[in-house]
Amino acid sequence: MTRQKYFSLILILGTLTALGPFSIDMYLPGFPAIAKDLHTIVADVALSLSSFFIGISAGQLLYGPLLDRFGRKKPLYVGLVVYVLSSVACGFATSIESLVVLRFIQAIGSCAAAVASVAMVRDLFPIEDNAKVFSLLMLVVGVSPMVAPTVGGYVTADFGWQVVFLILAGMGAAILVAVYFGLPESSKPDPTYSLKPKPILNNFFAVLKVPQFYTYAFSGAISFSGLLAYVSGSPLLFMEIFKVGEKQYGWIFAFLSIGLIGASQVNSVLLKKYRSEQIIFTALFCQTITALLFVIATNLGWLGLYETIAFIFVYLCCLGFTFPNASALSMRPFSKNAGSASALMGASQMGFGALATVLLSMFEARSAVPMTGIMLGSAVVALSILLLGRKAIPVTDDQPELEAPVGMLH
């Protein structure tokens, strides 16, 4: 594979992976404006975020089998068309109820991109390079939280929140064209793959029974739910509690995303010396300690705006190490069923994320306590699953039973 071809594949796969995050991040600064125009409250607008997460979670289970049966590109085309049409419809929503439903449909479309991109990494690149490729995808994805809320803040302030969804529709259309012309079909259709419910469920259960998969997929997914709790709670935290404006919120969100993206790129360097198993263990341990201190300081009322930003920054840094390694380790045992494995991994990420956002919406306290509590809970549970699940992973010559975390090797 030439360097130019390698770069082209990473760029297109990265834009596919970034489509969902852009759909999440870009309209966040518009929460107060949406609430005002649709005659509701910010907490109810957050339900449109929860419905998006639920749609991605459910949709990935749908697209996984389709990607294995029909190849990668045909289901991807269908998903992108659904995404474009529903994004336009979101821009014309006249009630919070219709927006919540349309966001669910929009998610069903966008999750085709998420599942296909992960499966195609497994198809197109050597297995030993998967963690590095996922780190590079994180660099492309990193454009989303750095650019999307900032652009969304300016667009909302100057043109209205409706235009944000029209921009997202244009992005979806551009990605569809890029996929058609620039992305090869990486997996031949498998006519023997049954789409009947029983074989599909049996295939999912076969994937779930693999200790390597459920350990890293679930620990990574639950850790990821802490990120989505922050994303869902950030408009209330910064714009309602700390009283920052839409444009300022976008810049804060972009700055915090540097921690997530920067850590994912440092991860590529660390992989030259340490194994993915070591890095993810250390990252989850640090994430738990950071979240614990964050909860304590928040409850004691010690934190202002800048201190809050600092704690979230460190927390996101930990996630930047966790996510690419969890993805690579989860997918490592699979080749033929990569689509189904990718779907289950993505569904678990968004499913737990949806649970975190719904749980957060149940609290009406105008403080950071509910958000920080959920962030701590996700870190603790993720670390516990990692420690317990690794005991069930078969020991091989190239995969020791338990490795010391980074920084504790000597």
Description:
The C terminus is likely disordered. This protein has a single domain, classed as MFS general substrate transporter like domains (Growth Hormone, Chain: A). By secondary structure, it is mostly helical. The protein contains 15 helices and no strands. The two termini are 39 Å apart. It is globular. Helices cover 78% and strands 0% of the residues.
CATH architecture: Up-down Bundle
Report the average pLDDT across residues.
87
Number of helices: 15
Supply the number of structural domains.
Answer: 1
Calculate Rg over CA atoms: 20 Å
Which structural class best describes the helix and strand composition? mainly alpha
> Could you tell me the strand content as a percent range?
under 5%
Q: In which range does the helix fraction lie? A: over 70%
CATH class: Mainly Alpha
Number of strands: 0
**Biggest sheet architecture:** none
User: Poorly predicted ranges (pLDDT <50, ≥5 residues)?
Assistant: 397-410
Question: From N to C, what is the helix and strand string?
Answer: HHHHHHHHHHHHHHH
Do you know the CATH topology?
Growth Hormone, Chain: A
